[in-house]
Amino acid sequence: MPLNSRxxxxxxxxxxxxxxxxxxxLSELHADPRLSMxxxxxxxxxxxxxxxxxxxxxxxxxxITGFHMDVAPEALGMAVTALVRVRPGPGQxxxxxxxxxxxxxxxxxxxxxxxxxxxxKVHAPSIAxxxxxxxxxLIHGQTTTSIVVSTPVPPRPLPIPDxxxx
Length: 166
Fold this sequence. Notes:
One of its GO terms (biological process) is response to amino acid. The chain has helices at about 20-30, 35-45, 50-60, 95-100, 125-140; strands at about 80-90, 105-110, 120-125, 140-145. It folds into two domains: about 1-70, Winged helix-like DNA-binding domain superfamily/Winged helix DNA-binding domain (Arc Repressor Mutant, subunit A), CATH 1.10.10.10; about 75-145, Lrp/AsnC effector binding domain/regulation of amino acid metabolism (RAM) domain (Alpha-Beta Plaits), CATH 3.30.70.920. The chain has five helices and four strands, in the order αααβαββαβ. Helix 2 (about 35-45) packs across helix 3 (about 50-60). By secondary structure, it is of the alpha+beta class. It has a four-stranded antiparallel β-sheet, covered by helices on one side.
C-alpha cells in the first residue's frame, strides 16, 4: 500500500510512525498481546495515557491490525490442512473471492500472481469435507490442492525493526 493513503477508513501510514518508542511498544505487544496499558507503560517508561494514545494511533493507522489468540485447528477437529490454488475461468475472478468469504473452512485467501490467481488456506475435519470445499471452487475455475503434512515454520510475527539501527 502506498504511503500517505487511506485504507479501510484508517489514518494514512506515516513513514516516521515507527520511532524508537513505537518500536518498543510493538515489541512488547508482540511478546505479550495481553499486557495492560499500565504494564506496557511501565515497561517502556511512559505514562499509561501516553502509551494508550500511541497504541490507539498505531491501531487507527493500521500498523496494529488486531490482538488475537491462536487455536490449534486440531483442537477444533480440523485434522486436515490444505493449500488450494485457484485459476478462475473467464468472468469468475470476483466470484472466487466471494466464495472464499462465504466458506468458513477458508482461513486465508490471497490474490497472487502467476498462472493461478488465488491461494487459499483451508482447514477441514476430513479429506471428504476438504473435497466438498474444493468442489465449491471448481464451478469458478481450476484448482490445485496440496495437503499440508507438517509446518516446520508456523505463522509468526514479523520482526520489529530497530529504527535506531536504520
